[in-house]
Amino acid sequence: MLLQQEPQLRELRIFDLHLGPWLEELKTGPVQVTAIQGDVTQAHEVAAAVAGAHVVIHTAGLVDVFGKTSPETIHEVNVQGTRNVIEACVQTGTRFLVYTSSMEVVGPNIKGQPFYRGNENTPYEAVHRHPYPCSKALAEQLVLEANGRKVLGGLPLVTCALRPTGIYGEGHQIMRDFYHQGLRLGGRLFRAIPASVEHGRVYVGNVAWMHVLVARELEHRAALMGGQVYFCYDNSPYKSYEDFNMEFLGPCGLRLVGTRPLLPYWLLVFLAALNVLLQWLLRPLLLYAPLLNPYTLAMANTTFTVSTDKARRHFGYEPPFSWEESRTRTIRWVQAMEGSAQ
Ligand SMILES: NC(=O)C1=CN([C@@H]2O[C@H](COP(=O)(O)OP(=O)(O)OC[C@H]3O[C@@H](n4cnc5c(N)ncnc54)[C@H](O)[C@@H]3O)[C@@H](O)[C@H]2O)C=CC1
Ligand SMILES: CC(C)CCC[C@@H](C)[C@H]1CC[C@H]2[C@@H]3[C@H](O)CC4=CC(=O)CC[C@]4(C)[C@H]3CC[C@]12C
């Protein structure tokens, strides 16, 4: 999207632990595209990649709420990695830093308190225990506190954090997992979450556009945007996590069985705890990381939706992809998977 939408762009550096073949397709235009295989936990690698950059968009992160990696690794990547990016900007003189934070920085909290169509100023007790939200909250705090630090050359660093709600769209691994689970169950998924529980979702293309826009506007509106957080939002409907997924999985042949959860909540709690025990017992043999665990169950059962226009007011954000376009593009992606699955 940067290559398509940013006329001022002269060089695009992509720093990632895992570089994919898709990068080769990006190298065909007038902009110099530099792919750098590196680890954000290695400060020297980050500094080498950042040196000379005008703006850094730091979106690398370990998104793990399924127990696939250790809490230490999550902290190392999400917190120390972010610290390394900030120090690289300061040491090499990069003045603008955009960070991909998360709704998880706010909630849902461990008390299961709903956040109903809230905004960046809505009072809410952000209390976390899980390593992932803890790491995102700490990383965001580091980014916001770094706003105004002097970088090499003596000018101030300008930082901004974007908080997407649940991202969906092409490449969404969890959607892929739901789809394959439905195929294994004969085209059916069984409702586990009450339809009344709203969970915020945002299309990946709109999240990407907000990042591009902030990267462009941060220099010109530094006094207003510096040190600020913005929820990433669009016109995706407010629905339960499962009902929202069915907007894409339904047209691909899956059916959600039940108008209300088929199992009582206490049984889901028991099964989630059993999954934790099985994960621990099986770890020496294999990675068992199902969708259902105490954290995902609590998250899915707690309303968390946003209603805000702060990004529009501060830097003119309007989601380029309508709900209909976002839905169509995601369905096409699942259908392409379906083709590969058959
Ligand atoms: N998926 C979601 O619903 C949401 C994601 N986010 C945030 O968006 C960002 C991107 O996440 P996703 O695209 O969902 O996940 P993803 O796993 O698709 O992307 C993360 C990227 O970071 C890279 N990475 C991981 N460890 C690294 C390391 N040590 N060094 C360098 N690169 C590393 C991965 O290779 C991957 O390309 C993350 O910061 C995440 O916390 C925020 C809100 C919602
Ligand atoms: C009871 C069911 C088996 C639960 C299935 C749904 C869960 C896997 C997902 C429900 C809410 C999701 C999280 C939410 O969208 C917020 C997130 C923000 C991020 O920064 C990363 C992803 C996530 C934690 C997301 C993960 C899957 C859910 C827990």
UniProtKB/TrEMBL annotation:
Belongs to the 3-beta-HSD family. Its EC number is 1.1.1.181. Pathway: Lipid metabolism; steroid biosynthesis; Steroid biosynthesis. It is found in: Endoplasmic reticulum membrane. Residues 2-256 form the 3-beta hydroxysteroid dehydrogenase/isomerase domain. This is 3 beta-hydroxysteroid dehydrogenase type 7. Keywords: Endoplasmic reticulum, Lipid metabolism, Membrane, NAD, Oxidoreductase, Steroidogenesis, Transmembrane, Transmembrane helix. InterPro entries: 3Beta_OHSteriod_DH/Estase, NAD(P)-bd_dom_sf, NAD(P)_dehydrat-like.
